[in-house]
Amino acid sequence: MKEFELRSGRLIDPRVSIIYTLIFSIIIALSSNMLVAVVGLISSIILTILIAINIAMILRRLLIVNIFILILWLILPFSTPGPIIFSIGGLKASMSGVSYALLISLKSNAIVITAISLLSSGGIFNLVRALSDLRIPDKLIYIFFLFYRYTYVLFSEYETIKQGLKIRGFEPKTSFHTYRTYGYVLGALLLKGYERSEKIHRAMLCRGFEGKYRLLDHFRIGPNDLIAIFMMALNIIILLLLQWNRLI
Amino acid sequence: MHIAEGVLAGPVLLTGAAGTAAGCVIGLKKIDYHNTPRVAVMSSTFFVASLIHIPLGPISIHLLLNGLIGIILGWASFPALLVALFLQALIFQFGGITTLGINTLNMALPAVLMYYLFAKPVRNPHKNIAVFAGFFAGFLAVLIASLLVALALVFTGKPFLSVAKFIVAAHIPVMIIEGIITAFVVGFLRRVKPEILGGFVR
């Protein structure tokens, strides 16, 4: 569960981070302009360097994203019509297919690098508090908090069950027995989760919970945030101008 | 089953976001404050369960469980899956912000459908009917989810047709295993804690 620890790098007000990531992601995701994708990727790398986030962590996560992208590279060049640039054993790869796959790779990585740098750097609790400031419904925020908290707890329950299986000499194989065992493990997890949720609910009622989540302190925009906002706004303006062919 | 960032076209992303928003509004309305801890803890259970690797020949797969989520949570599947997918996007980079809407819709819509089709049969006093309903809920939920993913890709562009076919085909074994395991979970719960089945969020 080490991966759940996200705090690293310099902190920007999470509200600023969320709004920027959202606008940046939407612009990049909707653009089919190669220049926008390239500039977007470069700006996301610059952002990562400025935030001084752990590069090894970013690379590890990019690997996961790029497995899906790799599948697209294996298929798209051959399934997009257009002038043919090379062929492998009867399969003809088209120029437009290759550039389509390249565009998607650039866009995907640009968005993911930005999201990791900004959203994964301030800790999940800060992020969700910021979402609450941005008018996400209280009930959803509240579900998220409890969900996040009890994911750890249930994960350790699962570890316990797993140890129990190991002690009894269980070895997962492709067999009906394995699937039945996993079915029962899941059932046991659901049961534990359900019973725990009943306890949590009663404990909360005892403490006077009335359906409202209260925060003790609030975020304030500091001088660092102003610099960040200025640079982010500049980047978005550049991307939009490129998209509408007003630059160069 | 998650679609990565930067792949899908604008209208598809927008449809996904709008559908998920609508589903969450309905789901949140149906959850009263008495039920929020249950939905949240169920959501964490599913998150943990999705980390379990199930062996299948030389490879291993992970479960989606949206059929089971559907029969247990009903419309609350939308917010439950939204928070789980949000956390997955944050910590594992499966999917992302712009695709959160469409990815949640692809998983939660079949879940709600399974609630209407199988929430009653899984509570049937006859064991065989309940277990078969469980199998079909698990199987169909993954089938429909993979078809929705395929549809999202095809609406983005014709060249994605073969990617879409590949995704559906690759999920056929997942559907079967998901069905078998869901059937066992239903068989287990109806003996041990029948009130969990059949949707405690109505």
Provide an overview of this structure.
The complex is a heterodimer of chains A (248) and B (202). Chain A has 248 residues and is mostly helical. Chain A folds into two domains: 2-123 and 220-243, no CATH class; 137-206, no CATH class. In chain A, 71% of the residues lie in helices and 4% in strands. Chain A has eight helices and two strands. Chain A has helices at 14-30, 34-51, 55-79, 95-119, 124-133, 138-167, 176-206, 223-243; strands at residues 84-88, 91-94. Chain A has a two-stranded antiparallel sheet with strand order 1-2. In chain A, strand 1 (84-88) and strand 2 (91-94) form a beta hairpin. The longest helix of chain A has 31 residues, at 176-206. The longest helix of chain B has 30 residues, at 127-156. Chain B has 202 residues and is mainly alpha-helical. Chain B has a single domain, classed as Arp2/3 complex 21 kDa subunit ARPC3, CATH 1.10.1760. Chain B is globular, with a radius of gyration of 16 Å. In chain B, helix 2 crosses helix 4 (77-92). In chain B, strands 1-2 form a two-stranded antiparallel ribbon. Chain B is 69% helix and 4% strand. In chain B, a hairpin with a 2-residue loop joins strand 1 (53-56) and strand 2. At the A-B interface, helix 1, helix 3, helix 4, helix 6 and helix 7 of A face helix 1, helix 2, strand 1, helix 4 and helix 7 of B.
Determine the most extensive contact between two protein chains: A-B, 84 and 75 residues
Structural class by SSE content of chain B = mainly alpha
| Overall pLDDT confidence of chain A | 84
**What Rg of chain B, in angstroms, do the CA atoms define?**
16 Å
Through-space gap between termini of chain A: 48 Å
**Strands of the biggest beta sheet of chain B: in what spatial order?**
1-2
Adjacency order of strands in the biggest sheet of chain A: 1-2
Strand proportion of chain A: under 5%
How many structural domains are formed by the residues of chain B?
Answer: 1
Order of helices and strands of chain A, N to C?
HHHEEHHHHH
CATH topology of chain B: Arp2/3 complex 21 kDa subunit ARPC3
Distance between the termini of chain B: 28 Å
Give the tally of β-strands of chain B: 2
Query: What fraction strand of chain B?
Result: under 5%
Shape of chain A: flat
- From the coordinates shown, what is the CATH architecture of chain B? Orthogonal Bundle
Number of spatially distinct domains of chain A = 2
What is the CATH class name of chain B?
Mainly Alpha
